[in-house]
Amino acid sequence: xxxNRLSIYLIKEGIKEENIFDETNNVQLLKxxxxxxxxxxxxxxxxxxxxxxxxxxxxxxxxxxANSRAVLIVKLDIDGKKETFALTFGYSKNLxxxxxxEEQFGLKIVLNxxxxxxxxxxxxxxVGSNQKQSQEQMPKATNINEFGFDLERDLIKSVTxxxxxxMFEKGNLIGGDIFSVLVNRNIxxxxxxxxxxxxxxxxxxxxxxxxxxxxxxxxxxxxxIEQLNNILIQYINEEKFDCVxxxxxEVIDWEGVSGFNYTxxxxxxxxxxxxxxxxxxxxxxxxxxxLKRKKIIVxxxxxxxxDKWSAYRCIIAEIQIExxxxxLNNGKWYYINKDFSDKIxxxxxxxxxxxxxxxxxxxxxxxxxDYNEKLSKFLSNAYLIHKIGEIxxxxxxxxxxxxxxxxxxxxxxxxxxxxGGSAYLSHLFNQAAVSAELLLDxxxxxxxxxxxxxxxxxxxxxxxxxxxxYTIIIGIINKYHDERPKIPFFSxxxxxxxxxxxxxxxxxxxxxxxNKL
Length: 517
Hints:
3 domains; alpha+beta; 26 strands; single chain; 12 helices; 5-stranded antiparallel beta sheet; 10-stranded antiparallel beta sheet
């Protein structure tokens, strides 16, 4: 028997068969094996490749292509419950309706099957910063700690690992929402295999080595999700865009992408801007169904659709209710484990507050640059380091480092930014961390010293530079006037990482809330 690459999803409990597929797709029944096993397909059409005419200016009857897509639906009784599986063939994931696929189905199968030293590849999203999505692969199976994975800031999306499981034929397993495996199975013997997959999914063996994946959990209570969605709509209508913004929900191949179409005039946009998306709705925003119906279309260079997501799936939101922290990511709400949340909050509360007297960010100030200039004059013993610009370092035109915004004569290095949500604050924290590390390099310090001399500053970094002589102050311009800056939970996670790394280098690190009037 030939091996087949199986791509398996688990359909969420309570979803009826007629509701599995997106209504906008013309999915049809191809064959009914029995009442519990049916093969559906999307009719495909044969056509000439676009590039044949676009580039070569020619037609050819011998060159054709087609996109074939099919889904096998299998219903099984397992431990007294009816479970439904979907096996996809071709690129069929976008045939499914919104919110019908069980999250982390394949991920838990893989983590319950492979050992901690058997990981080959991971896909992750940095929840604690700018929602950056990335994939990392090793040349051979290794420990997950060998990857650039932060247990506290990264949400794991999928894992590839080497299995020693006989049922999985000791092959490589790929698991996210989908479970993918190469095995000797076909339509005649798939049921037993699906039951085994489901039982692997329900195990909790993963907690022995991968318990940290439960730091962030999916919210499954319908009433809780409804409450969160209502608050989300409220936040959007109140334009609380420091807590709610939009982002691309998955890694895409930018080579063939020209932009995103979501406005009424059909304009192709370079990015997904929440204000523009909301403006394009036909009616005032009152419920999440409007966001789920609204489509963000990914277009190619000819303006043709190559993928699409609902606007709801593109929303990133961070909400706190009665001390509980939630995150909306990729169309799913996640609850932050209380022990993990308490740990982060306690550490944030311990960060030292600077006693340096900062001016307020006043209504007559044009931007952060304007504030930095006025702050440096107000402090009298300070230098407007922002004025000297970025320092080229490490090779390449794009590799330029900003030392800081303001620096005092008594060695206080100040970084300042407005609170614009986790993505914006992540840039601030990263700037501080990179600058702190590069100051250890004498070549970089010499470049900074030359720049400062050019601008008439008498401040210089000494040859016997000691980090213990310097204090790094992270100033956040905030509409909230608390002594300690009020920032999103995941920003606190990101800041914790940044501060620990700078303290490990020997710096003193402080925080400052700058009142925005």
